[in-house]
Amino acid sequence: MGTQFAFDWRQIIHSRKNMAVLGLFMAAFIVAFFALSWTKRLDVTQTSQATANAALANYAEYNLDTLSQAQKPLLANLDAQNSATGVIGLGLQLDEPDTTRNGLLSLRTAQLAMRQHHYKALNTMPLPPLHQLTGDVRSLNVLKSEGRPAATSVSTSASYIVLVLPYLGWIIGAAAILLSCDSWIERRRHRTLITARPLTAGLAGSSRLLMLTGFYILTLLAGFALMVATPALIAGLGDFNYPIAVMGTAILPLWQYILLFGGLTILAGIWLISFSMLVNAWITNVYLTAFIVMAAGLLPVMLPQLFHFLWFLPMPYLDSYATLSGTLVDRLNQPLASVVIGTGLLFLWTFVNLFIFGLRVKKEAA
């Protein structure tokens, strides 16, 4: 079995495709840092300005009916959001982090109230999901009580990680798919590999899964190292005790959240690798395999109403940030879509994939 591990590992690291994925994955975090720093795309300045514009537009629309008492709470909420964006802008202009943080807290509190009370302008305002808003309010209250600034721009390592967290799952998932889209194709195409190394389907499959998982983890570590090192060389490490909410309730320091996020991401990657192997047991086309696996991962985003009922499938939990923040609960409108259940389902369906894969390979070899 050790010989098989070594054989699979050599195949993986000598694959030009795998090394290209590793290089692109590492480069993506360097390019993204400089692009976000220069364009200010994720800075609170731009997001608060979008909120202010929407609040003014909605205020003008709903203020037409001046005699309606029912509109007053909505108008007061829109006014509170607009005022909060003004405080944020003032804090940024005067370089007063406390003012900026307090303005951001006021904005998130008003947005949370709009979500909770289901005001008419709910669908025309740029509001984060309910669990994210709840978590943001809790995190900002912790920062306020401790006199610490909020992450408002991509600058330090910690602020870079905090602001790109919602998008990391997509980048990492794409890397897992690209690494594993030919995971079993070579053995199917070259039958001599099977006759030269007459292992059972379970042992051969386990060896390939373990080696691909190892390379996948190596890729994640390399990318994370650059996520930390690149901003640190310019602006420093930042605050790795920054409070982040889990499921909108529990507060963890950033370094603990990263460990939890990393564990769930690795588990999601293992499921993607095992599913790619399962698809490869029928299909020998790399591009078609990548398309099928990617489509499966995107289904919960495209059809959330369907996955309200199919919450027991593993695909919704591939987005680690959505699972941990609780926005998956909001997306599917399904309270059972929790971190614990998602972790258990990813484990369970990985074994299901491997079981079906083993049956298929045995049938093919017979």
TrEMBL record:
The chain crosses the membrane at residues 20-38, 158-181, 209-234, 254-279, 286-311, 336-359. The keyword Membrane applies. Keywords: Membrane, Transmembrane, Transmembrane helix. This is ABC transporter permease. It comes from Lacticaseibacillus paracasei (strain ATCC 334 / BCRC 17002 / CCUG 31169 / CIP 107868 / KCTC 3260 / NRRL B-441).
